[in-house]
Design brief:
Chain lengths: 381, 183
């Protein structure tokens, strides 16, 4: 797939900017805080509807404006698509494909695929389990857009079940204090158990499935980068363990674990069983990469994961996704840098941000379209 | 303050009303007040009604063997527009949502169970939207009523005249789940 152009209006620090891309590689040069990463963030939003840097849409709209807009034209094997996202300071986002507005955000996914690689990705190894869950969920949403809906449902069930457990705990506390209480039917919890089991089993089975496919690809990349000196292992460690990949059996495992942890849930007043507590273990030569990996080992691991993502998306979608490299080349040593640049070759349309062109070799600069960013304005060389 | 009315429409309505005669505006105000004072809930099915028992429940031509369960009076109005359904209704007045403090006790469920056990009902059709809360409510009512009668739920899926290729994945997945054998 190929991103032909991008138009930003009142997005981050861009008032109005149109860029036409005409090379497989685009290098975006500029000092810090000029708007380089904002450009990549716009592409990331088009691909995943998420930004790894912003929690609320309010942050994405230029100060003093009520709404911002991202427009893009993507060329796919089957034709081109015009994508539009409208972001608001207050209120919901709206989406359009080929100038037709969409009712559901899920329908917007799948037109553009991208793998983002930034300095923040080291959190994938060093950070808490939620960074790894977010990572695998982000990949799944691109591969199977319906997963966005499944995940949303799971979180809604979780919020409702937590509210009920909290109310039950409050009732119990009031009862012990001798206060009169409104009776909550504990039978109701069984309903939410069933809902959590149903939606949780969908989440965990898809996570397991994608990791099974991703792990060998990541391993082989890791072998190549580390020169086969170290062995990477990726293991899905779901909170609810299951062995047979059948919806009913996985649901049963959820129900059994909830029964087992019943008292803990009553005591804590929240759901302690479910996919919101899943973990993905990375080990190098049998030791957890999170605690024992050196900085270099951790970078190699992240690089292997990102290359595996690229390959898996290409394999499943049938077209190479975009690659977004946010200030990350400078952090890699020459060996890993070459590994990455060689892999990219001409296959993936790549966007690279950097503060200095000097970190690239001559051939690369020759092949690339070079854009300079200064205070929210883009100038072509 | 009225739902579905934005600032522009509100202004248009206000300017329109100011230009009308006093009599017309008074009639409208009176009509709104009357509606508010007279419309309550049907004591059988809890649909909006000006009488103690609504016109659907008191209609002798309706099929008393079937009760369709909906969450809101709006759903009754939508189903009535189809003119396809000849049975009775039962309006729950919401869906189960612990976040909103709504449990089965806050809904018209007890009266539903009484209705189903007392009168001989051949079929219960559950027509509640498939949100997380709607699904939970459907599950609950299904469990509750299955010992007494046949319980079905309406199918969710593709809109008529819609092409398969334009259907979104969520709808398609749901339509597949609710597939039926060809007769």
């Amino acid at each position: 797939m190929y991103l032909q152009n991008l138009y930003l209006r009142a997005f981050r620090n861009y008032l109005e900017q149109e860029v036409v891309f005409h090379s497989q590689k685009t290098i975006i040069v500029g000092n810090n805080a000029q708007g380089k990463s904002n450009l990549l963030e716009a592409i990331e939003l088009l691909a995943t509807l998420k930004s790894h840097r912003a929690l609320r849409d309010r942050e994405l709209v230029l100060d003093g404006e009520v709404a911002g807009q991202i427009e893009a034209t993507v060329k796919r094997v089957y034709g081109t698509a015009d994508l539009t996202i409208k972001l608001r300071k207050q209120g919901k986002r709206t989406f359009a494909v080929n100038h037709e507005s969409l009712r559901r955000s899920v329908d917007f996914l799948g037109y553009l695929n991208a793998v983002q690689f930034s300095g923040l990705d080291l959190d994938l190894v060093r950070g808490g389990p939620e960074s790894r869950r977010d990572w695998i969920d982000g990949l799944l949403i691109q591969l199977e857009p319906v997963y966005a809906h499944i995940l949303q449902q799971y979180h809604q069930v979780l919020r409702q079940r937590n509210a009920l457990l909290k109310a039950i705990r409050k009732q119990e506390q009031d009862r012990q204090l001798g206060l009169s209480t409104t009776a909550i039917d504990r039978q109701q919890l069984a309903l939410w158990d069933a809902q959590l089991a149903a939606s949780g089993s969908r989440v965990t089975r898809r996570r397991a499935r994608v990791l099974t496919r991703l792990a060998p690809i990541a391993q082989s990349w890791h072998d190549r980068i580390s020169g086969k000196t170290e062995m990477l292992q990726i293991e899905y460690a779901p909170n609810v363990e299951w062995t047979e990949d059948e919806p009913e059996k996985v649901q049963l495992a959820f129900l059994e674990k909830m029964e087992l942890r019943r008292n803990a849930e009553y005591y804590q007043g929240k759901t302690v069983v479910g996919t919101h507590r899943d973990e993905i273990d990375f080990t190098i030569d049998g030791t957890p990469a999170r605690y024992y990996g050196s900085q270099g080992q951790q970078r190699t691991l992240v690089l292997a994961l990102k290359l595996a993502e690229l390959e898996l998306i290409e394999e499943i979608i049938g077209e190479p996704p975009l690659l977004l490299l946010d200030d990350v080349l400078a952090e890699l040593d020459p060996n890993r840098q070459n590994q990455l640049l060689e892999t990219i070759g001409d296959r993936f349309q790549t966007f690279i941000t950097t503060t200095h062109l000097s970190s690239f070799n001559h051939d690369w600069i020759q092949d690339s379209q070079i854009l300079t960013v200064k205070a929210g304005k883009i100038v072509e060389h | 303050m009225l739902p579905g009315v934005g600032p522009k429409t509100a202004q248009r309505l206000a300017l329109y009303l100011i230009k009308r005669s006093d009599k017309e505006v008074e009639d409208l105000a009176q009509a709104i007040l009357n509606a508010k004072k007279q419309v309550g809930l049907c004591r059988v099915c809890f649909h909006l009604s000006a009488e103690p028992v609504c016109s659907i429940c008191s209609n002798p031509h309706r099929d008393r063997n079937i009760i369709c369960i909906v969450s809101d009076s709006r759903d009754v109005i939508a189903l009535e527009k189809t003119r396809e359904y000849r049975g009775l209704y039962h309006v729950l007045g919401g869906t189960i949502s612990p976040m909103a403090g709504i449990g089965p006790e806050q809904l018209h469920i007890e009266s539903l169970v009484r209705r189903v056990t007392k009168e001989k009902v051949a079929e219960i059709i559950i027509a509640i939207s498939p949100s997380v809360e709607g699904e939970t409510t459907t599950l609950y009512i299904g469990q509750l009523l299955k010992p007494f009668t046949k319980v079905t739920r309406i199918a969710f899926g593709l809109p008529m005249g819609g092409d398969l290729e334009y259907a979104d994945e969520v709808t398609l997945a749901r339509a597949l789940e609710g597939r039926r054998e060809l007769e």
